[in-house]
Structures are given as C-alpha cells and as structure tokens.
Amino acid sequence: MSRKTIETFYSAFADLDGSAMQVCYAVDASFRDEAFTLDGRREIGGMWRMLTDTTRTRARDAWKLTASQITDSSAHWEAHYRFTATGRLVHNIIEARFSFDDAGLIKTHVDSFDFWRWSRQALGAPGLLLGWTPFLRAKVRQQAAANLKKFLAANP
CATH no. for residue 106? Predict the structure, then answer.
C-alpha cells in the first residue's frame, strides 16, 4: 500500500494537484526539506497547494516532474520548473524518504537535495556566492515560512 501512496502522490504532483497530494498524508504527518519543516496534514498540504497553485498560474510553461526508483519507503524525483520569485529555470534532483501509518498514509516525508546547486539555479549570483552558507538557508526558510503563513491565512 505504501508504494501505491507514493505513486498516487507523485502522479498528483505531476498534475499540479496539491489537494490530491494533501490527502496522501496522515493528519499528524511531518515533512522536512531544505526550505520547510512542517507538522500536520494542514501545513504540509498547504505547502503543496501553495507551490502547485503558483506553478499552475504563473509558471506552467516550464513544469515537468518525473518520479522513479519508487519503493515502499523512498523515491527519486526530478522537477523542472520556473522559480517564480526570480523567473529563473530550475532542475532540482531530490531523494525522498517516507514512513507510513497503518492506513497507508504518509507519516513522515523527508526530501533531500543539494541546496547550493538549487540556489545557484533559482537565485543566480546570490545563490552562487552564498548558497553554501547557513545565512542563505535561513533566509530561504524564513521567506518560505512567511509565504506559507500568508497562503494558509487566505486558503484554509
């Protein structure tokens, strides 16, 4: 069942369906990546809805997602997209790890990727010069949290 949940999740992601992604998570799930540390289906689903809504409305032209090497607890995925804050094209390569509850819903989800590589693509010169520093990571996390808070207030 867990592999099926992962396949459903990435199929919804490829279609930019954040609401379908959200229902793949347990109510008390947790998520972590370089930009977010989130608790609960509401926050996690809000992040995916925010990202997919923004991509669908402002950057659909560059969107492509492929998921591969899917197992019962992991997946490799690659996203090609336009980072809307700068308009720059990004090819992000991510390794995902999952755990599941008894109902087959995602309990924990951790995405790992090369932040410096991502920041060089998404941010240009600032990413090249500062992408390896804790300062830029903290700044990206702070901005991501502020964006999510604003999105959740408008889209509960």
Answer: 3.10.450.50
